[in-house]
Amino acid sequence: MPFMKTITSHLRTPLLLVAAAWLSACSQIDTGNVGVERTLGKVSPEALPPGIYFTLFKTVDEFTAKEVSFSLENLTPKSRDNLTMKDVDIDIYYKTTPSAVPGLFTKYQGDMVQHRQVVREGTADYVIAYSRVSREAREAIYKAIAQLDATTMHTKRTELAEMVRDGLQKELDANDKGAFTVTAVNVRNLLTDPAIEAAIRQRAETDQAIERKRKEVELAKAEAERLVVEAKGQAEANEIISRSLTPALKEIKLAELQRDAAIAIAGKAGNTVLLNGGTPLVSVGGSK
Fold first, then answer.
1. What's the pTM?
2. Would you put residue 111 in left (φ > 0), alpha (ψ -120 to 50) or beta?
């Protein structure tokens, strides 16, 4: 039995060494990442999916295919009205197409960094062509801001973000069609010069005053239109009444007017009002 134990002990050590060597010759690609296989310096055109790979005679580099974010801060681009922005901070989010990673690795071998090198609390995964994407993003931001006025830019954050996203996507597709997808752009900070801020406030106050005056004009116009409609309605009503009077009715109206006038005259002392036939209608203050 001691002899068997000795043999087992001697066998266990080489087996452990072989197992350790085998494990050290394996590489694991995590979920959401892809691998690029190199054999004697030659890059395989096919991306390796997540899994464990034996790499004793080859090298497997792991790259992220998950969404990557980075920030461009303290930018000072010029606006359309030739005013320099004081501080612009923008976050960029994008993904790399898994199948495009081997080709990008061949093209941008010197342009890869770990995600945690560019993002606080980032991962250890490698990001391919980071410098190229960030450079194009900076250029897209400057071009987008050059199309907007500094005095109104703060009201167009969503529009600015979309302009940056579209511009960046266009530039990335120009050299590497379909390799990258810009998923989102966030305009986090957009500060102008203090003098510009004062101009913005002044413009806002002016716009508010103009809006108040416009509403006052609209109210006055509405009131004038109401009065015109009312006067027109009254005139039409009078016209209808005038057309409805027959000759007989006109005679009656005339007689009523004469009667009212006669009564008014006869109401004074010494006046006598005669009808057409000579019969006194009213006699006031005569001889006894």
1. 0.59
2. beta
